Each structure stands twice: as C-alpha cells, then as structure tokens.
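Build the 3D complex.
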Amino acid sequence: MAQASAIQAIDPAAHQAGERRNLRDARADRAFHWLVASAGMFVLLALGGAALSMLWGGREAFSEFGLGFLFSTEWDAVNRNFGALVPIYGTLVTALIAMLIAVPVSFGIALFLTEVAPAWLRGPVGAAIELLAGIPSIIYGMWGLFVFVPIMGEYVTPWLNDHLGEWPLVGALFTGPPLGIGMLTAGIVLAIMVIPFVSSVMREVFLTVPTRLKESAYALGSTTWEVVWNIVLPYTRSAVIGGIFLGLGRALGETMAVTFVLGNAHRLSASLLEPGNSIAATIANEFTEADSDLYRSSLIALGFLLFVVTFFVLAAAKLMLRRLSRQEGKR
Amino acid sequence: MSRASERLYRRRSLVNGFNMVASGLCAAFGLFWLVWILWTTLRTGLSAISLDLFTKMTPPPGSEGGLANALFGSLLMSTAAILIGTPIGVAAGTWLAEYARKRPLGEAVRFVNDILLSAPSIVLGLFVYTLVVAQVGHFSGWAGALALALIVLPVVVRTTDEMLQLVPGTMREAALSLGIPQWKVTLQVLYRSALPGIVTGILLALARISGETAPLLFTALNNQYWTHDMNAPMASVPVVIFQYAMSPYESWHALAWAGAFVVTIFVLLLSLLSRAILLRNKVTHD
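Done.
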C-alpha cells in the first residue's frame, strides 16, 4: 500500500492509467463470466427446448387421440388413425432382449478385465471393446441386414422353431417364419451395441473398490469369484445398476441399427421372430413420407414419448452412478 | 481334512473356475463381434472402393457412380456443426469448471448435459425439425448442421469441464496472484494446460457425428447433386448409406459398403488419434 501511494505521488498519470486498466479488466471479467454462464444456460435450454418443441409438435396427435394414443394398435395412414402401442411394445421388447444378453456378458467382460486377465492383456482387450462402442450405428445396421439376418433366417430361426417352438408358454415366442428380420434379431444387434457401454462403466466402478477390502477377503481364503460376488458387487451395486440403465437408455433410443433389421411392420405379434417396429425405427422410416399434418404430429408425439422414457431411465442411471462417487467422497 | 470340508472346497474352486472361464468367454464373445463386423466392413468395402467414389456423384438406380456429393455434404455439415458446437461447449464447460463447480445450478447443468450426451439422436433431429425445418418450410444443410451441433455440444462440455478440473489449483492461484484478471487466466493459462484434452473431446465429437444418420434424415434430407448451398437439402454419407443399403439394387449396395468403409476408417483413425493425444499428454505430465 505504501509503495502504491509512493508511485502515485511520483506519477499521477500512471496511477490513472492503472486505475483505468483495473476498471477495464473488471468489465472484461464480468463480460466473460456472463458469456460462459449464458453458454451453460444454453445447455439447459437445449434439453428443455427439445422436450417442449416435441410436445408442441405432437399436440395435434395428443389432442386428437388423447390417452388412447398410448393403447391403440391402429396405425393407418389412409384413414388417419394412429396409435403408439405397437412401436412402444417393439421398443420395450427389443431393449429387454438386448439387456438380457448384454448385462451378463458385460459383467463377464468387466470381471475379466479387472480380476481375471493377466495385466498385459487388460489394456488391449479393454481398448478393443471400447472400439466397438465407436463404430457408427449404421454400420451395425448394415452388417445386421446383409450378414446377420441371412444367418438368423437360415439357421437360427428354423432351429428355434424346431426346438423351442413346441414348448408350452414360451413356444409362442419362438415360432415364426424364417425371415431373419424381427424382434429377436434387433435385440441381439442392440445387445452387441450396448455391451461396450455397460462393460466399460462396470469396469470403471469395479476399479473403485478399495484394494484393502478385496485383500481382506482373499486373506480369509475366498476365491476370486467369491470376492467379486460378495465384496465387489455389493460395494458397487448402485453404480452397476446405473451402468445397466445407461445401456438401457441407449438400447431404447437406438435408431439405425434397429431400423435395418426390425422389418417395419405395424402388427402386434407374440412371436419374437415376426417383424415388428420400434418408436425410433417408425420415425426414421416414415417421417419424410408423412403426408398429413396429423401423421407427422403422431410421429413427433412418438418421439416425445421416447424422449420422456429415456430421460427418466438416464436420470435414474445418473443418480445411481452418483451415489457411488458420493460414497467414495465420504471415505 | 474332513470329507465334508474337502467336498466344500472342491465345489468352491469348481464354481470359481467355471466363472473365471465364463468371464474369459464373455470377453471373447465381445471381441468376436468386433472382429466380425470390422472384417465384413473392410472386406466388402475395400472391394467396392475406386477413384470414382471420390469424383462421381451419387447415381440414379441401376447406374454407376460415386459418393462425391455425399462426402462433400458430410464434410460441410460436420465442419459447420463443430464450428457451432465447440465454442458454446467450451464456454459452458468453462462455466461449469471455473464458476459453478459446487453450485446447485452447476450440478443441474452437468446433470442435464449428461442426459443430453446419451439422449437418442433421432430425438434431437425431431427437435431441430420442429424448431427450424417446420418454421422455414424446407429441409436444409444448416438444419442438419444444427442437429449435429447438438450432438457435439454435450461431448465438448463434458471434456472441457473434466479437463479444466484436472488443472491444478496452484496454477490458477499463481496466475491470479500476479494480478491477472480471471478471463485472461482462463484463456491464456488454463486453456493452454487443458488444450490436449479439449482437442481430444472435439475429435471424439467429430467421430461421433461423422456416422450419425438419424438426426440428418429429416433435417438435411438428401440430395442427388453436388451442392454447397447450405440452405438447400444436402446429401451426407450416412443418409446415402441408409438409402442405398435399403434399396434392392446391387450397385447401390456396393456403394453403401464403400461409404461404410470410408466412415469406419475415418472414425477409427479419429479415435486412435485422440487416444494418442491423451496418452502423450499423460506421459509429459508425469
């Protein structure tokens, strides 16, 4: 302070310049803060805008069909009568098949990469699986259509017909024409897409388990499996469920891969081997062909439903993943 | 050892061995699909690649052609998307890391951003459709770029936020104690330190949008001809792949595979490059 006043005494002009500069800096600081804060608000706005604009775009369908929109299997472009039940059913069933396959496999991969594999193998295998996550979904779709569908149609579907088709209860699920396209194929392709996401989340959370905890269990004579099942999994339970939900969110909203192999058929059938439809695939297939406002509005309304469902699934995933990091913070 | 405990021990190690082998099989299962998909794409795509791909326009049914206009359209829209999404994303990430790190509003934005990150891309396409296409009245390259920018945004926000949080607090304090205003500290000190990470985020975002199809279907639509008018409908590689793969023509299938090949190679190179940048940066920091 003393020094500053000495300078002031010597050169008032310099002091004034410094003062001006301080003011300028303060202004610039405020402007910068304002700039970045508004960018942050833009992110909030983007999500809110997406929800509202789709609600707005789908208003015609919602007001025309009301709640019945959710429960009607009708999808008739000529008579302008639309219901969302078939796509909703298809979306849920394909996502369910995908999760039934992806969850155990991802758990196995995460287990392999954290406890089983020798250290030199973990890096390359982990990177390769993550590479699978980077492949664009349209490549999965094309591969599914040209490579996987023929195999499903020629070998898998007849086999399922012969062996599982006779069973009581589940038999109806596995009887169908040997087309290759259908819910089961779509579910399997989705599972392949979701596996890298779920397994990388699981691997990361498994790595957060304190070594001390695991070593204590090993010291008591536990096998590796017992350590994983009784120590690692209970410790990371909420985050593992969060990872599964993250994968579910992806499976529900995936468009291209499903569009190729689902068959775009607006029909509700018990069999997993029949062609079906999902929300995303319906929108992708029909949006540019929609010839009436009500048709387009119904498709946007479908998009709104998808958005709401994925929002809640992803929000649940985030909350559960966050619980683990908070737990870690406490220690 | 008694007989009972012997039996228990044997059963436990059997269960253990079985599950260890099963986990190995799971990893093999994951790799199996990766290898299969990549092999199919590379083999089929490579045989369809020729110079025509980069010089000729997308053909009408039944005739020969290339993907020149689609490649150009993808390039234009991706560039525009990066140019729109990156500044906003970096600014929002800066706000999260530097101004709102522990504030509830910051947490809310971070939460929303994470949801935007994994939101279905087709929904973002519908959003841009109702916001832009329905208002303007026609499909356009700008609408496509905007939809892609909405995918770029959360990726860049996330990486910027994370990378800035990794910058040691002492660096901020050292710079601030010299009397440098905060905006200068952010621009000249923090960004410089976090640059490799932010660049990685941008590359990852580019990798993600270069294969994105769903949001372009009803924003940029498609165009059979060469155009650099961003106000007109515009072709893009993924949309052309979709259209051609779903068609019944053999020559279109070949073109679709060639396009898939180009996209896959591009995406893989980008992800390898971003990994290399991160790795090199990690080494120099230690």
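Chain A touches chain B through 89 residues (CB under 8 Å).
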